[in-house]
């Protein structure tokens, strides 16, 4: 199920704690260097974000965005991952330096986690509601990269 492309990356859905029935999902990178739990809406209410910018297209993630209080690392942290700053360098993406899995990132105090990193949650990522960002046309390239 897909929603129309956003007119702005600022339209990304961010579940506000206290406005949904909380479900806890557990996940991590492939090798287990980092593990985390996320408090998010139930599967039928989760909205993941996809983007067609050059970076997101290459990695194929489906991101769920959240306030920091919704994410708890149970092993390691973002500091144990490699951070990649691209374009405006105002946000970062992280990946495991051991197994290479794109885990998540941060932009202006909002975290993202790749829903493909949730293990044993019984969630079929491809069946979740999709909020599409036309990053190829909406996110201006500021550094020529």
TrEMBL record:
UniProt keyword terms in alphabetical order: Metal-binding, Zinc
Record's keyword annotation contains Metal-binding: yes
Molecular function in Gene Ontology: carbon-sulfur lyase activity; metal ion binding
Keyword Metal-binding: yes
A Pfam entry, by short name: GFA
Domain named CENP-V/GFA: residues: 25-134
Origin: domain of life: Eukaryota
InterPro entries: CENP-V-like, CENP-V/GFA, Mss4-like_sf
Family note: Belongs to the Gfa family.
Name of the molecule in the record: CENP-V/GFA domain-containing protein
């Amino acid at each position: 199920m897909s929603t129309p492309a956003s007119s702005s990356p600022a339209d990304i859905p961010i579940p506000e704690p206290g406005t949904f029935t909380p479900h806890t999902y557990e996940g991590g990178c492939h090798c287990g260097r980092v593990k985390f739990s996320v408090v998010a809406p139930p599967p039928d209410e989760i909205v993941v974000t996809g983007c067609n910018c050059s970076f997101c297209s290459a990695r194929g993630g489906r991101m769920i965005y959240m306030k920091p209080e919704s994410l708890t690392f149970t092993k390691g942290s973002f500091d144990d991952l490699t951070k990649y700053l691209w374009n405006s360098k105002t946000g970062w993406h992280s990946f495991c330096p051991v197994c290479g899995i794109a885990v998540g990132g941060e932009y202006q105090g909002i975290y993202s986690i790749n829903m493909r990193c949730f293990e044993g949650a019984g969630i079929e990522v491809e069946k979740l509601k999709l909020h599409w960002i036309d990053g190829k046309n909406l996110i201006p390239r500021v550094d020529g990269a």
